[in-house]
Specification:
This protein has about 350 residues and is of the alpha/beta class. The chain folds into 2 domains: about 1-165, 3-Layer(aba) Sandwich (Rossmann fold), CATH 3.40.50; about 165-335, Dehydroquinate synthase-like, alpha domain (Up-down Bundle), CATH 1.20.1090. It has 12 helices and 12 strands. The protein has helices at about 45-50, 70-80, 95-110, 125-130, 165-185, 185-190, 200-220, 235-240, 250-260, 265-275, 290-295, 325-335; strands at about 1-5, 10-15, 35-40, 60, 90-95, 115-120, 135-140, 140-150, 155, 300, 305-315, 315-325. Helix 5 packs parallel to helix 9 and helix 8 packs across helix 11 (about 290-295). The termini are far apart.
Length: about 350
């Protein structure tokens, strides 16, 4: 399946096809691309791509959120310069969200911007982070606060690579699809309530891609509707930063963030049942005032308030402005130590 993404800056295609990684070169016009991956991507997949571009260097970064920092970005840029990449060259990112974010930002910076291609290998990056052009690194304990909007020139999605993904990584990625169902696609959310959601995996991926594609086309720079895709992320990013030793994965924090925000009790119970089926956490321990400070540092904060995504029914998200007291009240209701 091919989905055309038509943005104002750089239109590109998303190709969703089982086994496409085996013949990725057939879809890529670059002769000697610069490959970036991480040491958590199974060697099987790295070798499959490298064998198609035997003369191309592959820069392998350490796995994990800790690689989204200036030091690693500098190492990648130095390697690109050492291999004499020009403005006509292309970067290929093979990996999850960290690889995609870092590779995209490096591509946006190098020579004032060169092409990059995303080949996501995790559920989270397939349905969300590989699409839409948000690239960034973390800085001073704040997630994704230094970056650029830089659209890929192509996204290749091969569900076969999910076969080597652990159940935990699969489920945390599905949290992003749950988010899209709650904000944009009622049927997508209801797939997770069906008897065997795993039987609907290809449909879940496709529906998620269609949601993300549509939102990006209508609001590439996140001035309006695209903010809805931050559902669960404002508190989720705060939980992630608070537990900086990587106790929780990104999607797990998004799941907890969604539970923190939702007010409608009936919908909250439906979400709780879905998250439990996906073996995702509902809450975590934290210091309320520490989380308040982190939320106030969020990219969506603005002079005393922060934009929060809310939903009262699947398929319909909307925005609210919360002040510090509302943030604190939500946290006190969600904190298991205070309940």
């Amino acid at each position: 399946m091919k989905l055309a993404v038509r943005t104002g800056g750089k239109p590109y295609d998303i190709i969703l096809e089982r086994g496409i990684l085996q013949h990725a070169k057939d879809c890529i016009s670059a002769v000697h691309p610069f490959l970036i991956s991480d040491d958590g991507v199974p060697e099987k997949w790295r070798k499959m791509l490298q064998d198609q571009f035997p003369d191309s260097p592959m820069h392998v970064i350490p796995q994990g959120e800790g690689s989204k920092r200036f030091e690693i970005l500098q190492e990648v840029l130095a390697d690109m310069l050492e291999h004499h990449l020009s403005r006509k060259d292309t970067v290929i990112a093979l990996g999850g969200g960290v690889v995609g974010d870092l590779s995209g930002f490096a591509s946006a910076c190098y020579m004032r911007g060169i092409q990059y291609i995303n080949i996501p290998t995790t559920m989270l990056s397939m349905v969300d982070s590989s699409i839409g052009g948000k690239t960034a690194i973390d800085f001073h304990g704040v997630k994704n606060c230094v970056g650029a909007f830089w659209q890929p020139s192509l996204v290749l999605i091969d569900p076969e690579v999910l076969s080597t993904l652990s159940p935990r990584l699969l489920h945390e990625g599905l949290a992003e699809s749950v988010k899209m169902g709650l904000t944009h696609d009622r049927v997508l959310f209801e797939l997770f309530e069906s008897d065997d959601y795993m039987m609907h995996m290809d449909e879940i991926i496709e529906r998620s891609l269609r949601v993300k594609r549509g939102v990006v086309e209508r609001d590439e720079r996140e001035s309006g509707e695209r903010k809805l895709l931050n559902f669960g992320h404002t508190f989720g990013h705060a939980y992630e930063s608070y537990h900086e030793l990587n106790r929780y994965l990104h999607g797990e924090c998004v799941a907890m963030g969604m539970m923190t925000v939702i007010r409608d009790e009936a919908l909250k119970q439906r979400l709780k049942a879905v998250l439990e089926r996906l073996q995702l956490p509902l809450c975590c321990e934290y210091d309320t005032e520490a989380i308040v400070r982190l939320v106030k540092n969020d990219k969506k904060a603005d002079h005393g308030t922060v934009t929060i995504v809310q939903t009262d029914e699947p398929g319909h998200g909307y925005l609210e402005e919360w002040d510090e007291d509302q943030i604190r009240q939500a946290l006190m209701k969600a904190d298991p130590a205070l309940s």
